[in-house]
Amino acid sequence: MSSQRIVVTGLGVVCPIGLNVDEFWKNATAGKSGIVPITRFDVEKFYVKVAGEVKGFDAYEYLDPKAADRNPRAVHFGVAAARQAMNMAGIDMSKETPERVGVSVSCMSESDYIVRQANTLERRGPRRVDPLFVARSGPSAPAMQIGMEFTARGPNTSVNSLCASGADSLGTAMNLMRLGYADVMIAGGSDSSFSPLGIAGLDILGAVSREADPSIASRPFDAERSGFVFGEGSGMVVLETLEHARARGAEIIAELGGAGWSFDAYDSTAPHHEAEAYAMGLAMSQAGVNPEDVQYVNAHGTSTRLNDPTETKALKLAFGDHAYKLAVSSTKSMVGHAITAAGAIESVACAMTVKTGIVHPTINYANPDPECDLDCVPNTAREMPVDVCMTDSFGLGGENCVLVFKKFKD
Fold first, then answer.
1. Same domain, yes or no, for 243 and 268?
2. What is the CATH number of the domain that holds 337?
3. Out of 337, 350, 360, 401, which one is annotated catalytic?
4. Residue tagged active-site, from 15, 76, 107, 163
């Protein structure tokens, strides 16, 4: 595989604390929570009452009415974030070779839509099912729509490794470019899978917080944490080969240095620190950095009893004594867990950290957990130089992907 350098030139985000990158980063560094009482559906029969809902979003600002009406919410978010990222990158598709521009975007099928179509089949018969059911219900729906929106005819793929998917999509895009398949990739994730069925399943599993107070529901690494909070949204990153970005005079935000993958092969729900640490080491090796070069880790930080101490153990295994010198914070403390979009939204946060020299906090951190004894950047953002940062994404069942971002240097 080529050692071609891959750089970030555009960012886009739609999430509970921002409908664009500027709004997202302003609120993230201010420690603002986007966790609210659920309004998308009736939760009277549920123990779970809060989520990270996206508010005030208008799909018609980004898609023509026909495309907006026939596509689900995750596609709306994905196209919006992709447009933001492409605009920031300043890419003019009329000047690009379409076959050299690709898309790598993860998504989770929207269960509420599938349930509605199943009910239609049962009540009204097979001739009344949505004729676009297969296309709309598939996890590739945002990737396909984004490819059509930009006439991007290069690789078009949808990665699904559950909660690791968003980061996995960026790593996959990076490798596709290094293999010579594209010069530009729109990469990220989009998710709006929180639904009655999704919440019911995860609540029975014991993974979702039943905290009624939205202001403290998501509290990663805190001793009183009680489970993750569902979120939704999209994060998109425009990646380019350095050669391509230089040729068009692009402003470079950061460099995507490396990715590391592993699988726990351990348990269908419980994580394992050794496999997580392996992915961290692999990502650093591919990025050409040593553990002591890393200043910040954007943690998976789900706020569950199992994840947070396991991730802490993995960081100690991967970084040794340097783990105690790392700043470690969780974006999910503010936006919740957007499942297949989580790692992509967190990648946007990493790129902004490298660009601005600001580490956003882990909010709702009030009671230190002895098992999570690293520097969690509690409650207040921190200004500090960050030349190298890492983002961890660990999927339910043990699918792990870790990315390393670097400040761009010629």
1. no
2. 3.40.47.10
3. 337
4. 163
pLDDT at 136: 77
Q: Is 337 a catalytic residue?
A: yes
Q: Which domain holds residue 335?
A: 258-406
Task: Specify whether 76 is catalytic.
Answer: no
Active site residue 163: yes
Verify that 235 and 368 share a domain, yes or no.
no
Let me know if residue 253 belongs to a domain.
no
pTM of the model: 0.96
Structure tokens at 72: 């689900």
Q: Is residue 232 part of a domain?
A: yes
In the prediction, which pLDDT does 114 show? 84
Per the domain annotation, does 157 fall within a domain? yes
Query: What is the rounded average pLDDT for all residues in the chain?
Result: 95
Among all chains, which residue has been given the structure tokens 């009452």? 49
Say whether both 226 and 303 belong to one domain.
Answer: no
Residue 133 has pLDDT above 90, yes or no: no
252 part of a folded domain: no
**Average pLDDT estimate for 312-323:** 98
- Cα separation, 297 vs 112, in Å, equals 34
113 and 221 in a single domain? The answer is: yes
